[in-house]
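Reopening this ticket.

The earlier resolution said the output was attached, but the attachment link was broken on my side. Pasting everything inline this time so it's all in one place.
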Amino acid sequence: MAVLGARRKVVIEIEKSLPVQGGLGGASGNAVGALLALERALKKRLSGSERLRIAAEVGSDLPLFLVGGTCLGVGRGEEVFPLPDLPSVPCVIATPQVAVSTPQAFRDWHSAVSAGTVELSSTWTGGGARPHTAGSHMAGPPASKLTVTDPSDRMNEFSRRLSVWLSESALSGVSTRGGGRAETPLLDLVRTGIENDFQRVVFPKYPELREVKSVLERSGALYASLSGSGSAIYGLFGSRAVALKAAGKLKNNGVPAAVTTTLTRPQYWKKMQVSGFEWI
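Inline output:
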């Protein structure tokens, strides 16, 4: 409130639909929603850079919710690189009745790294492209405690190369006729080796989550992954019909699942009732 130059009593009511400890960023989304709502309620507007600064102080992954669309989070997620959008694709979100503690997942990862049983598979090394994972951007201990060396320089190099690659993909055109280009940008990105590193410490403790991911993959998902530190699992599909069948299989096995569609950045801004975020 201080940055808005106002002293008011504010009452915030939240109707939460997303599961607690699901790794879907519900709390972060609520925080960004509250920030924008305060601006409207007080009839004041923050600059884009000020919004990002406040967001990064509140939680590591909040800046991602200010940018929206396809983006790359570096460090703890507070450094955001907007990328050319991938097209909207059907998505299945499975929410198994399992609660995964994000702090505990970070502790498990740190212990595994210290023991030498895992390494950050997505750290840029200058060779084949290995993207930074969404999971390692979530709020938790500082990045320096999660990796043996500081990957920031390598990641900045990777983000630049990935931006160039996605720009070229966007310029080549995306068509939804008969599949083809509608799936190609996503499939090309998957082939770069993008992976959520949390899977290697969460799946051994919760094998049922690994099985949910396998069901999505066997049901035709172009890509499936743990969301954040879990427990939600999502799958991206080439058609809504295939996504509906996959969700049906999960539901038949007692796993709650919903079919939705990913949002491009303009679609996300429209949902957030803003014309755009000026973050530069």
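Reporter confirms the inline version is readable. The radius of gyration is 19 Å. DSSP finds ten helices and six strands in the chain.
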